[in-house]
Amino acid sequence: MSLPPLPAQPAGAPWPTRAWPPGDLPHGANARQIQRLLDEAFAAEPPADLGLTQAVVIVQGGRLVLERYADDFGPDVACRSWSMAKSITHALVGLAVGDGRLDIKAPANVPEWKGTGDPRGEITLDHLLRMSSGLAFVEAYSPDHPSDVIEMLFGKGKDDVATFAAAFPLAHPPGSWFAYSSGTSNIVSRCVAQALRADGPAFESFMRERLFGPLGMTSAAPRFDAAGTFIGSSFCFATPKDFARFGLLYLRDGVWEGRRLLPEGWVDYARTPTFQQPDCPDGPYGAHWWLGLAGPGSFSANGYEGQHIVLCPDRDLIIVRNGATPEATQPAVKAWLGDLAGAFY
Known about the structure:
Blueprint: H1 31-41, E1 52-60, E2 63-69, H2 84-98, H3 125-129, H4 148-154, H5 161-166, H6 182-196, H7 201-215, E3 221-222, E4 236-237, H8 240-251, E5 255-256, E6 259-260, H9 266-270, E7 290-291, E8 299-303, E9 307-312, E10 317-324, H10 330-342
Antiparallel strand pairs: 1-2, 1-10, 3-4, 5-6, 7-8, 8-9, 9-10
Helix pairs in contact: 2-6
């Protein structure tokens, strides 16, 4: 399929490595609609469908055009990523691929799957990144229902999230079934660490030297389990403006300050649709990035409780939203974000 082109950094717009260059709302933007949507989200009594909105940051043309924060919040408060961390994990895989350390089409290096005749040995990193491993992992967020993700993050799997996730059997042949799974992201995270021969502090140093440092993401705080694995499914705290820096890296095709950080084509790989079965209830997905939240061609890092980094290449637009929204009403947040993006032309 044809993907919309990714915009280059406009001439005269400094890269935000040290500070975001300020900008104004473009003349074509619907300022009244933007104000109405922000007033709705930041009302003294949070709307029941949106829940608490803690921060909204909007970047267009590489410039910070709007930021707003809830009371007792502010630009220096680091927010939860939740599953936005999966898209950060995608970037880490890209760095290792660019270094020649990983091949996403080869069987993933997972010791638990190396037994003779184990069908899981056919699972590739591509399958994992596309949530198509076929593993029988239940992604649910209610303590009232069986939930493998809650058990992995907060129960018996919390000290070694990748080993916990890798123990699940196949429910479907690899590549034949889409099923969103935080477990697969933590398996991917361990695969990157193994390829680099670095875990715990050494892996964090890699993240800072190769990703966070070049982007100026000084607030980024990844979390690791007791085994030294970056919990790449769920835990990388950062300020909203640092999440926007990460978004800009992808909107600029993996290039920062004129230097290519991610391999050529890696961002296109992230936004190329994954096969999904016809009755799949989830929205369209790429490779550790969601697709279409703000219209055709948009792609986004989405997290539990309504964390989002939304990228719209056709408008050179980034919207970051952090908050605390009940799981059942998160579709309302996505619709709100779509309306907000639609106010920019």
